[in-house]
Amino acid sequence: TRHGFWRLGVVGMSAVSGIEIALWDILGKSLGVPVWRLLGGKCRDYLRTYTHLGMGEMTSVYESLDSAALVECASRVVEVGYDAVKLVCIPYSHYVAPRRAVDSVAEALERLRRAVGPDVDIMIDFHGRPASVMLARDYIRAVTPARPLFVEEPLPPEQLDGLAALTADGAVPIAAGERWIGRREFAEALQRRACHIAQPDICHVGGLHEAKKIAALCETAGIGIAPHNPLGPIAGVAALHLGIATPNFIIQEEMSGAVPWYDDVVEWPIQRRPGRWDLPGRPGLGIEVNEAEIARPPFEQEI
Predict the structure, then answer these.
(1) Candidates 3, 127, 204, 209; catalytic one
(2) DSSP states of 196-244
(3) How high is the mean pLDDT of the chain?
């Protein structure tokens, strides 16, 4: 990361992250202690978690845009036991959008809030689809009556000034950071006050140590973290150890069930429950990887 001539982008840093996370696992197993102890010790006994529509099934995540589908999928998530759910229901947009599109989002969120009740947290991932502060603000106004826990990436990640303007509005909490790589990009975003909640992804920022540094920067700035993790079980376990050892942790994204073989490729250190991951006690990350199972499923391009 320091001595290559060209700076690594997200692909290179993802490779670095994988190696770095593996080294923590090796160190923890050699010492006979879980990784969260090496990261500074526990701040809590469990993590609050949330999932997506369809419990991670990709069609439900990305193709449930109408209100009926949103209500049906979210109700199933709540019935399983989660008390927080994330939606991707903002249409692909340009600098402006038809009023009907904005009104449809407002109506869908109103129906969804009525269906799940006041005690379930709703998060809305904009995926950076609006191209302007003006349009992002319109969609934020549309979802505000539903009282979301946060809206995520209401603008593309490079638009720090726009994100700062939306954060300053204070209508709803703004979350961002899944596409910021390394603490230097986070430091600039924090300096500009570009979010209320930061979302570093351990598997892209450089690994657990870099994520801890980012979390410390955020804590100093009075900002909590809700780490990004729509990934596999090894990433999920790494996020579990980070969250246990991080004081300004808020909630953890997880993607159990994203593929049928999610539970087959590793042995988890805990029994996962909907909405809650408990303290792991095994050395290292606490997992054993089933290499044969990883090699078995053929690659299939997701939507």
Answers:
(1) 127
(2) SEE---HHHHTSHHHHHHHHHHHHHTT-EE-----S-HHHHHHHHHHHH
(3) 94
